[in-house]
Amino acid sequence: MALTLRLKLSIMMFLQFAIWGVWYVTMTTYLGRTLEFPGTYVGYAYGTTAVAAIVSPFFVGMVADRFFPTQKILGVLHLAGGLLLYVVSLMTTPAGFLGILLLYALCYMPTLALANALCFHHMSAPERQFPGVRVLGTIGWIVVGVLVGWLALEATALPLQLGAALSMVMGVYCFFLPHTPPRGKGKKVTARDVLGLDALALMKERSFLIFIISSLLICIPLQFYYAFANRFLYDLEVWRPATLMTFGQVSEILFMLVLPFFLIKLGIKRVLLIGMLAWVVRYALFSIGAPDAVFLALFVGILLHGVCYDFFFVAGQIYVNKKANPEIRAAAQGFIAFITLGVGSLFGTVFSGWVVDHYSIEGMPEWTMIWLIPAAMAFVVLIGFALLFRDTTPPPAAELPPEPGPAHTPKPAG
Asked: Under CATH, which number does the domain 3-388 receive?
């Protein structure tokens, strides 16, 4: 791949995830502390991306992939998203905020798949070239997180406005990307294709069914972190919460590098179990650290993000890729994304908001008790998976995952 092309795609990925990371992590603090939204409405706000994740495959598969060049529809979606995100920053009522944010999410979420598709189209060896480009997305998330934390903008609308400005820049930039014709032009595409329902045949095997159910259930406690961790750290008056949380993305990059080694040495089941256990330990540490703001417990909980994300979600993508035959691999990846980023995340955001409200006194959450709930839920899923999952898939050769995701995306955020 030519250096000029790599640079263009890397800048695209940097902007793609900087747009998301600049507002997504700290929105909970702005809504809970400044606008004084109840936890339920904060959960609904984070649920807008889950709703959009459910809808976006239809848009990508049935519209974007069939009628428009990828770079142009990326540009239009980001320009429209920039305008909508700026309007979101002006909203101060739950109805107005949630309504416009949902419209924005419907513009943004399809761009995740479209950006990946644009990269793959122009790469001669995506399995080797894509990770090096995709990592710029995580770096973009880190850079904006450090900026927001350093400037102490968590409790303001400025992160939303910065996201809007970055989205406008990205929108213009997309029109200068290499021409990428629609992949599915002239092809008939059905809802079954879009949702990856051909992968349902894999669920005839008990272990794959257990994996899908566990993936769905584990996404419910996971959303506590994505929706409320920044507010939690802000309430404890921890040093620059948004900046501190970027160490989770640094951890994600490091553990991505060692994941192939662990898959070979331990096998897929043990790696997935380690990923689930990391979520239990993280929430337990948050609960322990909450009463006296014990920095070490909180910091270790943040650093566990690499294990939490890579050892379950990325390892899960690799597992699905190995189980599916070449004809249905794309469908299988689409199906697991629908289950985790869509359905599981939606349930999780709504439930986490309800729990925060239930364990709040005069608007202040009782964080010690709140974090025990997702810890217990993740532990139950862990035990069930350990007892029921039996896999005979051979250990993979040392390889990177096909499409690693962000920290806070039920990447997933990546």
From this structure: 1.20.1250.20
